[in-house]
Amino acid sequence: MTGQNMATELSEISTFIHSIPPFDSLPKQVLAQLVRELTINYVRKGDYLPPKGVNEPRLYILRKGAISCLSSDGELVSRLGEGDLCDAFYHHDEQTLSNSKITSESPLQVQTDEDCLLYSVKAAVLDEIGARFPSISDYFSQNSAQRLKNKMSQVNEEAILSSTLMNTAVSNFYQSPIASINAEKTIQQAAMQMNEEGYSCLVVIDKENPVGIVTDKDIRRRCVATGLATSAAISEIMTRDMYTIEVKSNAYDALMMMTAKHIHHLPVTRHDQLVGMVTVTDLINNEGHNAINLSSIIHKARTIAELKEISQLLPKLQIRLAKLGSSADHVGKSISAITMAFTKRLIAMAEYKYGQAPVPYAWLAAGSQARQEQLAHSDQDNAIIICNSMKPYDDAWFESLATFVCDGLAECGFIYCPGDIMATNPKWRQPQKMWHKYFTDWVETPSPKALLNSSIFFDLETVYGDVSLLNQVRKKLLHKTQNNTLFIAHLTKNALNLRPPLGFFRDFVLKQNGKHRATLDLKNNGIAPVVDLARIYALSEGISAVNTIERIQQAAGTPSLSKESAENLIDAYEFLGMLRVEHQAKELMRGKSADNFLSPKEISKLEQGHLKDAFKVIKNLQDARQSSY
Amino acid sequence: MPSASLINSPMFSWLLGYEAKRKLLLKKAPAGVLHDFLSVPLPNINTPIDKVAILAVDFETTGLNAKQDKLLSVGYITLQQQQISLKSSYHQIIKSKAQLEESNVIIHHITDSQKEQGQALATVVASLLQALAGKVMLVHFARIEKQFLTEACYELYGMAPSFPMIDTLALAKRRLDKRDVAYDPSELRLASLRHKIQLPEHHGHNALNDAIATAELFMAQMSKVNKDGKITLKDVLL
């Protein structure tokens, strides 16, 4: 390089390098020296690093494109994009590198996800600069240690979250034999066959060869929705390019393939012969074992610190379940089960610390956890019901228990209930007779205000302890509510305070406060009204279930709710729940805390239409409640 | 013995090939820069393109006519073993008495006072020929570099070699023409082609930046079409 203009000639590259830590700390002259030591490579998508013919240790700087770093067993360790540094091939110790080359046991595999433009610099050059500028050498020595630590914990997390599917072959899941249909049959015949045989997917066969696949969704999307005659040949609507998976593959790969291709059915082959079919549902049901995996680890935790560490997996579990397309119901049940496991473990720790309870009791979950509709790291709502034989001085023990457990839950990310509905509040830590009295007062002399605060107690579940304590209270309560129209009227009045914003997309009746401007509050405007309706149905019909879907199902066909309305309401509720779970997964993936504020831009026109329909269903049923009093 | 002008005639080029021409001209060249340049063999046209030593070159000029207009600056960088080494980069402004036209000053950001700091044409061309010896020249839109370098060689040495060249514009054009779909010629500009295959924005109209940008574009083009490594120099030569 010659010329007085050196600094300006490569100014673009210099500016780019200068924007990346730790190079931002280098003086201009040293930066210029570093820049002229760079080489530029172009690596096509799917190729591995280092580029062909490069053997010496180098630091890579991603100028354009994306790369994935995979551990030796194929787990994704990190994904790098523009401006990121890749130090997988930057070793201070030449020996390490040559060894790993010989045994080809490089600890990381680095593969490009897109075509990449890479800058790189020899480790020797960087070491020389690092000798003069410790900020550089510190950065890389620190970082590799940190990165290794991160990598290890990530790999473990992945293992916990996916062990069941990773270790299980597809052969454990597939249904055999495969249901097939001749290509000349009509769409209607296919639909009839699906109904009769209970399959949602058929493989289309032409002259004994599989030529495509058709699902009930295809019939809806490509026939009914487009107005195609049901007398048309099934081959008109089938998907021709059929993905398949070998029977030896593990279930995780099958799931990833289906997720990536947005398909729900995957034919399984053995030596290229179709042998069966695996569905997303089969695999997701198995994913439920994640909750069991996690629960068993929670059960083994010895300290609150250990529990806290495990709790950090919760958002990841939620993201994963959402990505797999689990229903909100399934996500809620999984997360609630895990919260329950945390609570039980903390109670066991407290009992170990403070000794056995002086009298029988039960630890209760209230609200979303009791309904099994909890999402990651929501607030804690809990209470204690104690046997009537307790003496006044016994409360000290229960207070210690409550404090230990609630503090522990808070440590694990379940924030303290803003309304102080927690066992630490003496009001919610009472003998059974007091609970009887509470409910009697609420039901017999209801005031809307009192009900607003206490409606959460109409959704209670025993987490730990003597189940009969709560069951007796509930039985008495349901008997009272069933025949008390005044109480139901008050409850209804409360519930109707939350109305779905029907004009959401037209009039933009949106939340106008602060950072949630122009968004829809999915929880308060959509989900909570359904939960409230379901509670009203349950209390008026004497239904003991607390889960919203179960309440609606059991209320279906009673005077409170027609079967048809129940079906519509469940559809609306599941749709809103799905939007919420997907929205939260997006937020969590961006490292934000999950909220319930959906921007209309986030969803497609079609989903906007569904949302409108869901709101209409809820409003109609709310109106029906209102007019009955 | 054919004369230098005959050697450069299109008919003769077609008959002879550049390596034969190099040997012919070497016998006539006076000792010095040009002789040194000519004494290094050029790569065989059957060499796989990945193995060919390439020099990406860009000129900034006062205009498009090599007979009237002047060279303002030269930038180049080597592309070897599929990588660009910034250490090999060169950029030099050329000192010349020619009046700078105002419109071009705006494009190239080279002012008269800067130009006074430049080096003589002979020095810059000598550096270029030294770097180019044994390499294939890579340019975007070959006409400018070909004509201006040929003209400079005649001016300095009284004769001009024929330079084997790869033109990223011609390669892109060949691909577009093959598709048999109408396209806007502006799609063939360096910045447009880079944008299309998602290479980063670059600051154009600086000879070195454009040379690097051209080399990156060529790497990207080859990565698309040369997956099996079978493309040889003759497949891409202008």
Automatic annotation (TrEMBL), chain A:
Protein name: Cyclic nucleotide-binding protein
TM spans (from-to): none
Record-linked InterPro entries: CBS_dom, CBS_dom_sf, CBS_domain-containing, cNMP-bd_dom, cNMP-bd_dom_sf, DUF294_put_nucleoTrafse_sb-bd, GlnD_Uridyltrans_N, RmlC-like_jellyroll
Domain Cyclic nucleotide-binding: 22-84
Keyword terms, alphabetized: CBS domain, Repeat
CBS domain location: 174-230, 238-294
Family matches, as SMART domains: CBS
A Pfam match: CBS
TrEMBL record, chain B:
CDD domains assigned to the protein according to its UniProt record, in alphabetical order: DEDDh
Listed InterPro entries: Ribonucl_H, RNaseH-like_sf, RNaseH_sf
Pfam families the UniProt entry points to: RNase_T
Positions of transmembrane segments: none
Keywords per UniProt: Exonuclease, Hydrolase, Nuclease
Nuclease is among the record's keywords: yes
Signal peptide (residue range): none
GO molecular function terms listed in the Swiss-Prot or TrEMBL record: exonuclease activity
Every Exonuclease domain range: 53-227
Name listed for the protein in its UniProt record: 3'-5' exonuclease
Source organism (scientific name): Colwellia marinimaniae
Upper taxonomic lineage: Bacteria, Pseudomonadati, Pseudomonadota, Gammaproteobacteria, Alteromonadales
